[in-house]
Each structure stands twice: as structure tokens, then as C-alpha cells.
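Hello Y.,

Per our agreement to keep a running log of every chain we model this quarter, I'm adding this entry. I've kept the format consistent with earlier entries: sequence first, then predicted structure.
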Amino acid sequence: MLGKKAKLRLIFLIIVLLLSTVVIFFVFRSLEKNVVYFFSPTEIKTNENLKLNKKIRIGGLVKENSVTKNNTIINFIITDLKNEIIVTYEGIVPNLFSEGKGVVAEGKLRDKKFFLANKILAKHDENYMPPEVKDALEK
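Predicted structure for the entry above:
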């Protein structure tokens, strides 16, 4: 059988593994609550399990001739060339925000066709498109 030292080492190893597992579980659990998911308009339309009023990101292209401004409120349409979603944002948009360009909006979904953004992410040069947006558009 095992000697006294070997048993103590085995017990110590088991305790360390259990504690490590518990710590890793809680770290992943806390990170899960802070993750903001990215969706294209088509994914929003087809996803039946999508929760309303939950913080998400949507991305695609700003549809041509869809941007309307009223003081600091900006309405526009994000498209992935298959489906569209109306976005309302209050604030100042980045300089590179324009029609026909890639954009990612962060905020809350009111329904499957309307999105209330609290942040517009378009802080990149004219040729760059976030990999998530590029992949969604290629699908």
C-alpha cells in the first residue's frame, strides 16, 4: 500500500485540484456575466432564444440613405445585405461613421427590428472591418 507520506501527498493533490476547479468555475461564471455578444441582423432575426433588454452588440454595414439626424439623436439602419435592423443612438458618432461603412453598435434590443444603442464602435480606418463583421457579411 501507500506509505504515510504518499497518502498525505495524494490528499494534498486532490484538495489542490478541487480548489482549482472551484476557482476556475467561479472565474468563468463571473466572466460570462460581463461578456457582450456580437450578432448580425440575420442572427437576430433567426435566433428564437435572444433575450430583449440584454446588452449585446450588433454589426454590419450602415445602409445607404438611411442616416437621419435630429439634434443629437441619430437613426440609421444596419444591414448584413440580407436583413436589416433600425438603430437609434443619442450622442456623437465617431468621425469614420458613414453610410456604406462597417459599424458595431452596443446597446439593448427592443424587438427584432429595433435596437437602442448606447455606444457606436467605428474607430478604425476606412479599410478595416472587425473580423466578426467581415465573417458575418461573408456568410
